[in-house]
């Protein structure tokens, strides 16, 4: 056997081993309860309280309900007091846990001193950095964004600055106690460069890199820091699109994502979203960046918003 033949055989064997390992790792995602089990007391063992930003609606609300159902008291933060109070009552009635509300508009500059003051005496074991905004409901090119200067500031304040500031407030207590969980919500669109979602996707890339770096820094302190990057979830941000095999309800997604909490520093949160992420990262960018794809997506979002507006109008007329 000559050197070239041996080299090709070795290369082939290495490729088989590489993809075999990847297949094995992927297969674990099909059975999270088997591969990534957690005790029923896992969350309460982290601390008495969980903090959820953007906790009055959508994914944040679902996290607050699920964590309260696991036995933790919950702090929910959002900008609308009426919605916060309503959700707090619903959680308290359903779970019997304490719920504290903090009103905060995370698109504004100076909201964190008051938040820190309200949280300083709490034993916080879980932080969910969920709050986030889209530059606009209808995707568009960067320079076509309405009120671009103001939108840049709001997106960075809400999607980027808030996550870092909330970690600054809560992480020291976790480090002192040698335990804690931080879940930072990114987005599936951040897995590739995403034209017409450029500003939003870039802000979520920051979420991923910040979280992964932070996990490397604090993993040996007993703290779990994970990015969760969902694709379609039926929430206000997505126009409450109809749930299906790919688009999950917020409750379904949160239940699924928490099963992967010990699976690594990033997860897409559900098996269907894991497959979708793999597909997008494997597809040619020339195809995904084609104008026809973007125009089709814009038309789909516009149609969805029209349907939503029509339904809202009908509901108003029926009352």
What is the chains' assembly state? single chain
Q: What strand order characterises the main sheet?
A: 3-2-1-4-5-6-9
SS content category: alpha/beta
From the alpha carbons, calculate the radius of gyration and give it in angstroms.
Answer: 21 Å
CATH topology of the largest domain: Rossmann fold
CATH architecture of the largest domain: 3-Layer(aba) Sandwich
**How many strands appear in the DSSP assignment?**
9
Mean pLDDT: 90
- Helix segment count? 12
The termini sit apart by: 83 Å
The proportion of residues forming helix, as a percent range, comes to 40-55%
The geometry reads as: globular
Topology as H/E string? Answer: HHHEHEHEHEHEHEEEHEHHH
Mind summarizing the main beta sheet?
7 strands, parallel
Give the percentage of residues in beta strands. 5-15%
CATH superfamily of the largest domain: NAD(P)-binding Rossmann-like Domain
* CATH class wording of the largest domain: Alpha Beta
Unreliable sequence segments: 312-319
Keywords:
alpha/beta, Rossmann fold, globular, 12 helices, 319 residues, 7-stranded parallel sheet, single chain, 2 domains, disordered C terminus
Structure commentary:
With 319 residues, the protein is of the alpha/beta class. The protein folds into two domains: 31-283, NAD(P)-binding Rossmann-like Domain (Rossmann fold); 285-319. Helices cover 55% and strands 13% of the residues. The chain is built from twelve helices and nine strands. The protein has helices at 3-28, 32-35, 42-46, 58-69, 81-95, 112-119, 148-177, 198-218, 250-258, 271-282, 285-288, 291-318; strands at residues 49-53, 73-78, 99-103, 124-129, 180-185, 223-228, 233-234, 248-249, 266-267. It has a seven-stranded parallel β-sheet, sandwiched between helices. α8 (198-218) links the parallel β5 (180-185) and β6. It is globular and about 70 Å long.
């Amino acid at each position: 056997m000559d050197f070239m033949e041996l080299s090709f055989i070795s290369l082939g064997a290495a490729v088989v081993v590489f993809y075999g390992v990847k297949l094995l790792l992927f297969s674990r995602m099909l059975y999270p309860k088997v591969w990534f089990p957690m005790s029923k007391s896992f969350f309460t063992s982290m601390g008495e309280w969980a903090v959820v930003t953007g906790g009055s609606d959508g994914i944040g609300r679902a996290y607050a309900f699920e964590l309260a159902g696991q036995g933790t008291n919950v702090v929910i933060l959002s900008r609308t007091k009426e919605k916060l109070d309503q959700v707090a009552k619903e959680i308290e009635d359903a779970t019997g846990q304490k719920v504290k509300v903090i009103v905060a508009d995370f698109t504004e500059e100076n909201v964190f001193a008051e938040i820190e003051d309200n949280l300083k005496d709490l034993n916080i074991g879980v932080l969910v950095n969920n709050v986030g905004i889209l530059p606009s409901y209808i995707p568009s090119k960067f320079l076509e964004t309405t009120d671009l200067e103001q939108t840049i500031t709001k997106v960075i304040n809400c999607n980027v600055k808030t996550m870092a500031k909330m970690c600054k407030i809560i992480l020291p207590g976790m480090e002192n106690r040698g335990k804690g969980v931080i879940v930072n919500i990114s987005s599936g669109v951040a897995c590739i460069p995403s034209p017409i979602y450029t500003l939003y996707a870039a802000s979520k890339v920051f979420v991923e890199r910040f979280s992964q770096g932070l996990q490397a820094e604090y993993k040996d302190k007993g703290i779990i820091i994970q990015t969760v990057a969902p694709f379609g979830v039926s929430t206000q941000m997505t126009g409450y699109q109809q749930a299906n095999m790919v688009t999950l309800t917020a409750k379904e997604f949160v239940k699924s994502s928490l099963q992967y909490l010990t699976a690594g520093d990033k997860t897409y949160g559900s098996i269907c979203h894991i497959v979708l992420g793999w597909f997008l990262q494997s597809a040619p960018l020339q195809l995904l960046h084609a104008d026809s794809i973007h125009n089709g997506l814009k038309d789909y979002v516009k149609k969805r918003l029209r349907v939503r507006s029509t339904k809202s109008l009908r509901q108003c007329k029926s009352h």
